[in-house]
Task: inverse folding
């Protein structure tokens, strides 16, 4: 039989994932502790609309907790990704008086289950053109290349494309390997056979999401017995090795190395993806005629673009203190460093023709990105300075348009591809991966 006696204090979890509260509505009894767990790759915070709690940002794997002692209704939002009107990342908590009857009501509510985060869609990456590759020595013939691309994680996949490969003789087979000249590490991609036209095409994605470009700098195609279980490579028939000095610079663009600034290309991509969310928030605020929300997210955009050392970085709307949903380095500094590093790699003493060509492509795309970032920055500053929501329409349109271009570029000539001269941050990142592609040769 239910009685109106206090129950044992409870703790319940709310997951912050895919830029939403899960669940978005929660019923608990007084005395319950709610723990918010951040499972996103971006910072979030817990802010009560009534102003009673304004938490600091917390990151993936971190949590924030609050105990609800008084019955009532509480509206909560993330100031980075939501609004007090309930749009975006927001939730409602109903707190009932602490007794057994109400505890049964709260217990009947569905229990939230964490769900896998939604991966950011990645544009398909075509392999770089083979005709830009040159042999390491005159007596060698380039038969193809090994290129790196993203499937689930940065450079977690390789594509092997070889042509003119004769079938192995004597019942043997070929096996493909990634190699590292610094550690003598080898990693098998599996056994392969050329098709009737002498073509080998193989794609491999690392099950653990490792950055293969950061781990390996070479390739071997070896001839092996058909049922070989030897974990070491046999005789290499074709092989390739990327040059050391240029590759070390390329890796600073594509291989994360710890705290911000992370790899310049990866950092630029992640921050531009975050900016795109805030461009959508600005549009939503404008549609809802909320100048305060538009200015809050305009501040986020400016801080994302400039980073902590930027001239305008700070509490631009005068509310909630300085808010930055990024890592603090800034999109503009990331893109600038990405471009300068690509040029340095092209000027390395061992840089190949392919590295030099794709470096010019990185420069074209990053020039675009910097120009588009400046347009977004100017528009966001105008929104911060506006007195009424009626003034900001053209600036909202500018941010919506150029934030898409900043990340993805656009197919300006309608040929179905985004060329470097049409590209943005992702195209620049893609051509940095092209710079690291390993040419594969065989002895004539």
Result:
């Amino acid at each position: 039989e239910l009685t109106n006696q206090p129950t044992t204090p409870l703790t319940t979890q709310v997951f912050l994932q895919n830029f939403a509260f899960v669940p978005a509505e929660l019923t608990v009894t007084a005395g319950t502790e709610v723990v918010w767990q951040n499972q996103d790759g971006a910072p979030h915070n817990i802010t009560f609309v009534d102003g009673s709690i304004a938490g600091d940002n917390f990151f993936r794997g971190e949590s924030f907790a609050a105990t609800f002692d008084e019955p009532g209704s509480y509206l909560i939002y993330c100031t980075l990704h939501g609004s007090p009107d309930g749009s975006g990342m927001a939730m409602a908590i109903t707190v009932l008086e602490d007794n057994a009857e109400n505890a049964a009501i709260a217990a009947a509510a569905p229990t939230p289950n964490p769900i896998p985060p939604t991966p950011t869609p990645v544009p398909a990456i075509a392999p770089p053109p083979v005709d830009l590759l040159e042999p390491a020595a005159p007596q060698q013939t380039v038969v193809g290349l090994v290129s790196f691309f993203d499937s689930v994680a940065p450079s977690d996949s390789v594509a092997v494309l070889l042509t003119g490969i004769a079938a192995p003789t004597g019942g043997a087979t070929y096996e493909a390997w990634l190699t590292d000249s610094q550690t003598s590490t080898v990693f098998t991609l599996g056994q392969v056979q050329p098709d009737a036209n002498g073509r080998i095409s193989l794609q491999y994605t690392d099950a653990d999401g490792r950055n293969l470009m950061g781990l390996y700098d070479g390739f071997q195609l070896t001839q092996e017995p058909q049922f070989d279980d030897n974990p070491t490579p046999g005789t290499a028939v074709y092989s390739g090795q990327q040059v050391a000095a240029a590759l070390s610079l390329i890796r600073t663009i594509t291989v994360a190395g710890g705290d911000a600034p992370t790899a310049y290309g990866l950092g630029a991509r992640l921050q531009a993806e975050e900016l795109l969310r805030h461009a959508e928030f600005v549009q939503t605020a404008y549609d809802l005629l909320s100048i305060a929300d538009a200015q809050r997210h305009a501040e986020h955009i400016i801080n994302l673009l400039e980073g902590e050392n930027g001239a305008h970085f700070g509490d631009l709307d005068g509310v909630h203190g300085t808010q930055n949903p990024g890592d603090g380095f800034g999109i503009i500094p990331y893109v600038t460093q990405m471009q300068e590093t690509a040029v340095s790699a092209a000027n390395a003493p061992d840089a190949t023709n392919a590295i030099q060509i794709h470096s010019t492509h990185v420069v074209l795309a990053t020039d675009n990105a910097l120009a588009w970032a400046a347009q977004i920055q100017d528009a966001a500053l105008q929104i911060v300075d506006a007195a009424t929501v009626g003034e900001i329409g053209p600036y909202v349109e500018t941010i919506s348009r150029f934030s898409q271009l900043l990340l993805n570029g656009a197919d300006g000539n309608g040929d179905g591809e985004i060329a470097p001269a049409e590209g943005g941050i992702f195209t620049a990142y893609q051509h940095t991966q092209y710079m690291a592609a390993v040419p594969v040769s065989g002895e004539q």
In short: The two ends are 89 Å apart (CA to CA). The chain has nine helices and 16 strands. Residues 245 and 349 are 7 Å apart (CA to CA).
